[in-house]
Every structure is written in structure tokens, then in C-alpha cells.
Amino acid sequence: MPWSSDRVEAVGRNKSATKQEKYFKLTFHELLPILCSAAVPIVICVYTAITTYEQTKEAERRQFDLKQVAEERRLFDLTQANQLRQQLLYDQFIDNMYTLDKDGQLNDSAKPWAFPNARYWTAHRQWEPEHKGHSLIFLKKIDLIGRQCHGPEGQLKRLDDIIQLNQLNFDNIRLKSQNSNMHPLNMTCIRFDEVSLINVSFTFVNLDYASFDASSLNGSKFEESSLIGTIFNATQLHGTDFSNSDLQDAHLYNVILSTVKITEEQRKQAKFTNITLLNASNADKSTTTTGKL
Ligand SMILES: *[C@@H]1O[C@H](CO)[C@@H](O)[C@H](O)[C@H]1NC(C)=O
Ligand SMILES: *[C@@H]1O[C@H](CO)[C@@H](O)[C@H](O)[C@H]1NC(C)=O
Ligand SMILES: *[C@@H]1O[C@H](CO)[C@@H](O)[C@H](O)[C@H]1NC(C)=O
Ligand SMILES: *[C@@H]1O[C@H](CO)[C@@H](O)[C@H](O)[C@H]1NC(C)=O
Ligand SMILES: *[C@@H]1O[C@H](CO)[C@@H](O)[C@H](O)[C@H]1NC(C)=O
Ligand SMILES: *[C@@H]1O[C@H](CO)[C@@H](O)[C@H](O)[C@H]1NC(C)=O
Ligand SMILES: *[C@@H]1O[C@H](CO)[C@@H](O)[C@H](O)[C@H]1NC(C)=O
């Protein structure tokens, strides 16, 4: 009978298991004092070592986090401090100009306006592009640059700028109308002569009858701007982008046009004298004397 033999086997197994358990219980009780005296301290020791290691790691991690937070905080403070300093310098400049105006230093009789120019140069040296851009808008607003001039060319009468921008650096500035698509930023008749204007962007700016003589406009862009009657004489125009700006009667003298982004329409609007159309791809140099392209 198969079921009875199974049963016998099961009983037999139970018996031997109980024996083993007993034996184990015994030996375990016997071993316990030994375990307590030797192994447990080792276990505790290992446990403590691991815990200490973990705690050290955790502390290091926390310290690292704190360091990182401190570093971020420091950079934030530095940026804040720098911004504050820039703003203070700017406000100070405005106050100085107000005082100079009251003292008659901005009158035509005060030509060549040494004090206002010295003030501007000193402040300008310390500004970042943002405030350099703001300063141009301010100077134009109070009529110290781009003073009344009238187009078209025939009756063009330009007054000397009270603040001369010559030899200053305006790289990376962004000039943009405040209310884009309503009123362009008025920057008419400004003399950007011998000025560095690399990587500058003009967006919705009125630059009619302004001039950029002997300046660098490398990598700059004129978007939705007006350049009516504007003069570019010996201006570096490497990669300059005239985008969709109006170049009606603009006059380009002594310039290299090979990398300029200029449309067919703009070529028809502007006048060109002694220009180089050197193309890197075909290395073909051609010059025209006067006229439209
Ligand atoms: C500067 O011009 C204003 C008027 O434009 C005049 O009132 C003032 O007296 C002049 N100041 C000097 C120092 O000439
Ligand atoms: C721009 O400014 C000039 C003088 O700085 C002024 O004569 C002219 O009317 C202004 N143009 C516009 C459109 O406001
Ligand atoms: C150009 O100007 C932009 C915006 O101000 C700036 O992010 C970028 O770094 C400038 N490029 C160079 C080559 O200076
Ligand atoms: C262009 O600039 C040169 C010097 O850089 C000057 O001699 C010349 O008269 C200028 N031309 C015009 C039309 O302004
Ligand atoms: C402007 O670009 C031209 C052509 O690459 C280069 O010869 C000239 O040195 C650049 N000007 C400046 C101020 O980097
Ligand atoms: C023509 O323009 C080049 C620069 O592109 C200049 O070196 C040269 O002197 C100019 N020639 C005259 C006659 O102005
Ligand atoms: C100059 O080269 C570009 C391609 O690099 C080409 O599209 C353009 O038509 C060339 N311009 C002239 C005037 O040859």
C-alpha cells in the first residue's frame, strides 16, 4: 500500500528533524557564552565601524551640500553686489550730468565739454553692456548726442555731439525700442565714429543720418531698423546683418561687403563708393566707384 509507506517515511523524517533541532538547541546554548564574549563585540565593532563610516559619509555629503549652497549663495551675493554697484555708478553718473548741466558745463559755450566727457568716459569704463546701452538712450534724450540734424543729405546740418563716443567700446549692447512695433527708439544722427560695436543688436531703432565711420560692426545685426541716409565709411562689416532694415539713401564708402548680409532690395536702396565684393568662395575681387549696385 503506497500511502502507508509514505506515512512511515514522513514520520521517520520528523523524528530525525527533532533530533537535529535538539542537538542544535543544545549546542547553541553551549555556544552562547562564547558568542557573547567574542563574536558579539566583533559584530558590534563591525556595526559601529559601518555606522561611523556611513555617518562620516553623510556628514561629508551634508558638508558638501552646505559648501555648494554657500558657493551658490556667494555667487548670488556677488551678482547682486555687482548689479547694485552698476546701478549706483549709473545713478551717480545721472546726478553728475545734472550738476554739470546746472553749472553750464553742457552749454555750447563750454565746448569742448571736457568735464562731461571725462565723467562719461570714467563711468563708461566700469559699466557692463546693459548700462552702456542705457547711457546712450539717456544721452540722446537730453540731447547730448545725435543732436538735431535734418535730412535729406542736401540740408544735412549736424551739430557736434557734446559727449563724444569716439574710441569707446559698446560691444554686445542691445538697443531695442521699449514699445516694440509702435515707436522706434530714437537714435537719429548719432555719431558712432571710431567705436567698437561688435556683436551688437539694434532692434526697431531709428538710426537715420547716423554715422559709423571707422567703426567695427562685426557680427552685429540691424532688425526692423531705419538707416535712412546713414553713413558707413571705412566701417568693418564682417558678418553684419542688415536683416529687414531700411537702407534708403544709406551711403557705404570704403567697405568690404563680402560677408555682409544684405538683400537685393537693400542693395537698390543704398549708395556705394569704393566697395569690395571679395567673396571667399570665388576669391573674385571687384570694386565699383560710385553708384547703386
Ligand atoms: C547755459 O545756458 C543756459 C540756457 O541755455 C543759461 O541760462 C546759462 O546761464 C548758461 N550757463 C553758462 C555758464 O553759460
Ligand atoms: C529724434 O530726436 C531728434 C533730436 O534728438 C528730434 O529732432 C526728432 O524729432 C526725434 N524724432 C522722433 C521721431 O521723435
Ligand atoms: C553676443 O551677445 C550675446 C548676447 O548679449 C552673448 O550671449 C554672446 O555671448 C555674445 N557673443 C560674443 C562672441 O561675445
Ligand atoms: C571717409 O573717411 C576717410 C578717412 O577715414 C575720409 O578721408 C573721407 O573724407 C571720408 N569720406 C566721406 C565721404 O566722408
Ligand atoms: C572685423 O572683421 C574683419 C574681417 O574678419 C577683421 O579683419 C577685423 O580685425 C575685425 N575687427 C575687429 C575689431 O575685430
Ligand atoms: C577703398 O576702400 C579700401 C578699403 O576697403 C581702402 O583701403 C582704400 O583706401 C579705399 N580707396 C579710396 C580711394 O578711398
Ligand atoms: C558669395 O558666395 C556666396 C556663397 O558662399 C554666394 O551665395 C554669393 O552669391 C556670392 N556673392 C557674389 C557677389 O559672388
The CATH C-level class name of the largest domain: Mainly Beta
Number of strands: 9
Q: What's the main sheet like?
A: 4 strands, mixed
Low-confidence stretches: 1-13, 280-286
H/E order of the elements? HHHEEEEEEEHEE
* Domain unit count: 2
Bound molecules: 2-acetamido-2-deoxy-beta-D-glucopyranose
What's the alpha carbon Rg, rounded to whole Å? Answer: 40 Å
CATH fold type of the largest domain: Pectate Lyase C-like
At CATH level 2, the architecture of the largest domain is 3 Solenoid
Give the fraction of residues assigned to helices: 40-55%
Q: How many distinct helices? A: 4
Describe this structure in words.
This is Pentapeptide repeat-containing protein. The protein is elongated and about 110 Å long. Strand 7 (251-253), helix 4 (264-269) and strand 8 (271-276) form a beta-alpha-beta unit. Helix 1 runs antiparallel to helix 2. Mean pLDDT is 83; it is low at 1-13 and 280-286. The termini are far apart. The strands form three sheets. It has a four-stranded mixed sheet. A three-stranded parallel sheet has the order 1-3-5. The protein has helices spanning 2-102, 114-126, 129-141, 264-269, and strands at residues 174-176, 185-186, 201-203, 205-206, 221-223, 231-233, 251-253, 271-276, 287-291. It folds into two domains: 1-103; 116-291, Pectate Lyase C-like (3 Solenoid), CATH 2.160.20. It has 293 residues and is of the alpha/beta class. The structure holds 2-acetamido-2-deoxy-beta-D-glucopyranose (NAG) (7 copies).
